[in-house]
Amino acid sequence: MSNMEVRLRVGSKLKKNADSIFQEMGMTMSEAIRIFLTQAVNSGGLPFRPHLTNPNSTTIQAFEDVDSGDFEEMSIEKFSNYLDGIEGEKSKNS
User: Fold this and answer.
1) For the chain, which end, N or C, has fewer CB atoms within 10 Å of the first or last residue's CB respectively?
2) Record: fold of 1-49
3) pLDDT class for 28, splitting at 50, 70, 90?
């Protein structure tokens, strides 16, 4: 299989930040792009789900609570019971 050259234009800040991340991961920009393209071909589309990242006020408050340590830790079992309760409520309201 022969190699082809791909040229890409990106902002300098994006390139610098991406280079830094890839370097920490032990790879070059070319290797990272090759991985991206391979995953796109293997998955038949983008290898991630694009979405808007504008968190609502509830999500922002949750992030702030976690940052300040204002949250309740719970076991997997307790969390599972919590989710079961939510599912039970959904079933009643359907």
Assistant:
1) N
2) Arc Repressor Mutant (1.10.1220)
3) very high
| Rg of the chain taking only CA atoms, in angstroms | 21
Rounded (5°) CA angle 29-30-31: 90
Tokens at residue 58, please? Answer: 């509830």
Rounded to an integer, what distance in angstroms lies between the CA atom of residue 7 and that of residue 72? 49
The pTM is what?
0.52
Largest CA distance in the chain: 61
Look at residue 76 and give its three-state secondary structure: helix
Residues in the chain: 94
